[in-house]
Amino acid sequence: MRRFLFGFVLGAASVIVALAGVGHYLAVADPIAHVDAIIAISGDTGARTDSAVALWKQGYAPVLIFSGASQDPQSVASAELMKRAAVAAGVPADAILTEPESATTEENAANVAELMHARNLRTAILVTSPYHQRRASILFEREFDRRGGITFRNHPADDPDWDANVWWTRDPSRARTLVELAKLGALVAGQRAG
């Protein structure tokens, strides 16, 4: 009986460690440094916007870039809503660029790369939700490499609704993470994932 109990506890601990490992793998983060721009892409925009604004206020970049369309074509673009929140938080409007056309992460990456290239912005910090950071990083790296030498550092948003250590214990964090894992798997397998 003791052996069974020990095996069960060891097995359960291994599963928990593996699930936490998945969370930490998704929430890729780099040491941050001063850059030309801070990019926040739409989605769960509250935490993403707040984290980007916090970095801007700490002086990590002179420019904020918000990227994302609205899910409803008749509504204001998410990028514009993010800009409004940043301005309300004290960021001057002229320190913010918006890219309001992107409907997918792949489009975010392509359109932001074009915007940065056109404005000769060469370095950035990429902010998105922690569970989305790994896939966004892959897509942004591909697009930035195509534009020749634009680089970025990953900085997952400080999201109070998602914890890398216990993401599987409740929804919506469990559902969002599982969807993200499926999209990441499709991307890695060479399929287009938005």
Instruction: Say which CATH homologous superfamily of the domain at 29-158 is assigned.
Output: HUPs
Mean pLDDT: 90
CATH architecture of the domain at 29-158: 3-Layer(aba) Sandwich
The CATH top-level class label of the domain at 29-158: Alpha Beta
Q: Please list the strands of the largest sheet in the order they lie side by side.
A: 3-2-1-4-5
The amount of beta strand, in percent, is 5-15%
**Number of E-type strands:** 5
How do the helices and strands follow one another from N- to C-terminus? Answer: HEHEHEHEHEH
- Spatial gap, N to C terminus: 50 Å
Which secondary structure elements does this structure contain, and how are they paired or packed?
Elements: H1 2-26, E1 37-41, H2 45-57, E2 63-67, H3 78-88, E3 96-99, H4 105-118, E4 123-127, H5 130-146, E5 151-154, H6 173-188
Parallel strand pairs: 1-2, 1-4, 2-3, 4-5
Helix pairs in contact: 2-3, 4-5, 5-6
Walk me through this protein's architecture.
The chain has helices at residues 2-26, 45-57, 78-88, 105-118, 130-146, 173-188, and strands spanning 37-41, 63-67, 96-99, 123-127, 151-154. The protein is α/β, with parallel strands linked by helices. The chain has a domain at 29-158: Rossmann fold (3-Layer(aba) Sandwich). The chain has a five-stranded parallel sheet, sandwiched between helices. It is globular, with a radius of gyration of 18 Å. The mean pLDDT is 90.
